[in-house]
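Long-time lurker. I teach an intro course on protein structure, and each term I like to show students one example going from raw sequence to a predicted 3D structure in token notation. This year I'd like something fresh instead of my usual example. Would anyone be willing to generate the tokens for the chain below so I can use it in lecture? Attribution to the forum is fine with me.
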Amino acid sequence: MNIINGGKITWVDIHNPTDKDIEYLKTNYNFHPLILTELTKSTLRPKVDTYDDHFYMVLHFPIFSQQELTTLPYEFDFIITKDALITAHFTKIDLFDDFFNTLKNNEPLQKKYLQQPNPGYLLNHLITIFFNFALRELDHIKINLDKIENRIFKDHSKNNLVEQISVVRRDIINFRRIILPQRTTLESLVDAAAQYFGKESAHYFSGLLGRYLLVWNNLENHKEAAEAIQATNESLITTRTNQIIKTLTIITTILLPLNMISQVFFVQLNSPFLESEMSFWIGIIAMTAIAASLLVIFKKRDWL
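-- Reply from a regular --
Happy to contribute to a lecture. Here you go:
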């Protein structure tokens, strides 16, 4: 547990809440028992629960996992009172810790965020940090889509494009699953902020909806781009496959009559044709003429 007491506002940050942490909250704050229970376990959906003198909010932020190669939800719990902000999370995130440590050792920043009439300004800034980070995550998805698009048209020899497209699409799908439910939660946050911090604070939190929509619109653009890239790649694969089948069919069509000639004139041991000294060369010339004729026919019909 880490605590910053800025005079007017206190920020308590808890990583992996323990029984000792819960006991501290029981002793120093009058939180509803359900909140303290939920702090110790993961919550599957984002939400805002309001109480008499505080409210409880759960948000899930999309962060890319290098181990899983996809975006995963990272839960953050917020308890907000008139003069305190308690944050709880199960995963250590450098972006969040960096801001906490900077604020802890920076008096001008403490004055900016912890000397306000209520913790609403700090809460707003924390959520904004995560949405800005989400936009940077989306930039990485765009970079990957651009790389795949260039490879589709420049490097046909690689056979792992389908896998790469699938990885990016999976990342986008997971990102959407995390972000989509947040809108309702943010709308509830606007109402809760107006109730606890005054109506004048509502426009600050309404700005979070704007950040959310910016993330969502970028995500939808990437989703459509990924679908178009996949459709283009599948079309090119189908075209190349058809071309290969076409070539193999032409080769088979040319070899079939040649094989029949060889069977008729050279395999039959008692054939009179074999008694001629020129039989071998006559057969070769006949097969060559047939093959050439077929090639000319295919060329005229634009099959080659």
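Some talking points for your students: The longest strand covers residues 55-65. DSSP finds nine helices and six strands in the chain.
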